[in-house]
Write a structure and sequence with these properties.
6-stranded parallel sheet; Dihydrodipicolinate Reductase, domain 2; 12-stranded mixed sheet; 2 domains; about 475 residues; Rossmann fold; binds nicotinamide-adenine-dinucleotide; alpha/beta
Length: about 475
């Protein structure tokens, strides 16, 4: 049994969900430490020789988060770090030890025989190149999302994963998050009936949410490799904001669609099993964060999901707004004929109803009261005879609300790392759900939203063949 399931079972039942009114949630005696321990139980190294050596490529913000998380998994060790900015290499030694091998050239990390797996935490325009080089060098790869910068780069990553047979996982941790996987069970159990529509949004408010990350107090161009940073992007003179706040520029980042739609789609595809939409139409705007960026701070998209074995056809309305006055929030609402699942980051709510099996009438907003009294009485008499109370459900009945939440300190990123290292230990790339094909199916519709904004037209997408349809 996987450790999450085991943990949930330990909570006292087959599920951590509690029906009835307010909330589940996790019993107080289960604290975050016990929870983490229960998660990592299944990944204890078998011997010292079983240690998985990690190379980190890109030691910026998420590089720190990802590596610290990976090091919580027993039997992992960091041996090398690559980054283009010298002070970040100095920081790497401060945090992870002075004996660490550091370099500005990621190929030196890949060339090391003692590196088993790499975490690729660089800007989006480098994801495909470094992933392919790493797979070719025989390394297992955890590559941050979105898998690629442009749709046409995706197939080469899929091919490389297949050709070199290494474990490859994309880093949208929603694919392994407890809330998403528990919501999936409810969806598959038919708890919302047939899906009819979905809505997903991820909104932010403040400057850090809008990617205005802190710049170093002094920037010495000699401390970084600007030409290497540019890679396949258009040549431009060095500008610190382009290096340190690269997300705000389309040459390196994928905008709010590539960056954040991809998380929402990873969750949606995990729950529904859908392969992706067949068409994408989007509007984009830069409303608030006019700091020189060329990426939008608001993108709204409509995506048309075709019927598959696991879902009816449904439209998805999706939005990211980096300047909402309402504070940040994230929701994915799956609306079905018999219920709604509303998933947040690490929680969800399930509302269910039973539909009547008798026709409905009302003494309120209905046509009944517009008829003469005698006619109304006759109608009610006949109705009661035909649909006696007790034998028939005569109005909609709401089930108690069900809520799911995780214990304090829960980290979905750790769950995702555990999936990655388990697949390496068992030498089974197939244990990875968010592999290159999944990564492409989440990234491409997100990137198609950017294309749609630019081209002011719907983009038609073949979710099975993973190709843009030129119609
Ligand atoms: N899964 C998540 O929740 C999540 C969250 C944040 C970021 N991310 C993803 O992680 C990636 C990195 O984002 P970040 O916020 O850490 O950016 P960052 O700017 O903080 O860090 C990127 C680092 O990569 C280095 N770098 C750039 N090109 C390089 C190259 N060719 N070789 C070696 N190092 C290179 C830079 O010097 C920088 O230190 C992005 O793709 C982003 O979308 C994922």
């Amino acid at each position: 049994m996987n450790s999450r399931r085991k943990f949930l079972r330990q909570l006292g039942g087959s599920s951590a969900l509690l029906a009835g009114g307010a909330s589940l949630l996790i019993p107080e005696h289960v604290n975050a430490r016990e929870y983490r321990e229960s998660l990592i139980e299944s990944v204890k190294p078998r011997s010292v020789a079983d240690t998985i050596n990690i190379g980190l490529i890109g030691s910026g913000i998420i590089g720190h988060y990802d590596l610290d998380c990976a090091l919580k998994v027993p039997g992992t060790k960091v041996v090398a770090v690559a980054d283009l900015y010298q002070p970040r290499l100095e920081r790497a030694k401060e945090v992870w030890g002075s004996d660490l091998f550091t370099t500005r050239d990621y190929r030196e990390v890949l060339a090391r025989k003692d590196v088993d797996a790499v975490l690729i935490c660089v800007p989006d325009h480098w994801h495909d190149h470094i992933s392919i080089d790493a797979l070719k060098a025989g390394k297992h790869v955890y590559c941050e999302k979105p898998m690629v910068h442009h749709i046409e780069e995706g197939q080469a990553v899929i091919d490389a994963q297949k050709k070199y047979g290494k474990v490859f996982q994309v880093g949208s941790q929603r694919a392994s998050a407890s809330a998403v996987l528990e919501a999936k069970k409810r969806y598959e159990a038919g708890d919302i009936g047939e899906i009819t529509s979905a809505e997903a949004f991820l909104d932010r408010t403040d400057a850090l949410g809008a990617w205005q990350y802190t710049l170093p107090p002094v920037v010495n161009p000699k401390d970084l490799d600007w030409d290497s940073f540019l890679g396949d992007a258009p040549k431009k003179p060095f500008e610190p904001v382009r290096f340190f706040r690269w997300r705000n520029y389309k040459d390196y980042g994928t905008g709010v669609a590539g960056d954040l739609f991809v998380h929402l789609l990873t969750g949606l595809h995990t729950v529904t099993g859908s392969l992706g939409p067949s068409s994408i139409y989007a509007l984009g705007d830069l409303n608030y964060w006019k700091d020189g960026r060329d990426a939008y701070d608001l993108v709204t998209a409509l995506l048309d999901y075709p019927k598959t074995k696991t879902n009816a056809s449904f439209p998805l309305a999706m939005r990211v707004n980096l300047a909402t006055g309402a504070g940040g929030d994230i929701h994915t609402r799956l609306v079905g004929t018999e219920g709604v699942i509303d998933i947040g980051w690490n929680s969800f709510t399930l509302n269910r109803l039973k539909r009547p099996n008798a026709p409905m009438y009302s003494k309120g907003y209905d046509a009944l009261f517009t008829y003469p009294q005698a006619m109304q009485d006759q109608f009610v008499r006949q109705y009661d005879e035909k649909y006696p109370e007790g034998k028939f459900v005569r109005t909609i009945q709401n089930d108690p609300v069900v809520k799911f939440d995780v214990p304090e300190g829960y980290d979905d990123r750790l769950d995702h790392m555990i999936v990655f290292f388990n697949a390496i230990r068992e030498n089974k790339p197939s244990l990875i759900k968010e592999d290159a094909v999944f990564g492409m199916r989440a990234a491409a519709p997100s990137l198609a939203a950017n294309l749609s904004v630019e081209q002011k037209r719907a983009i038609n997408w073949d979710p099975v063949a993973m190709k843009i349809k030129q119609t």
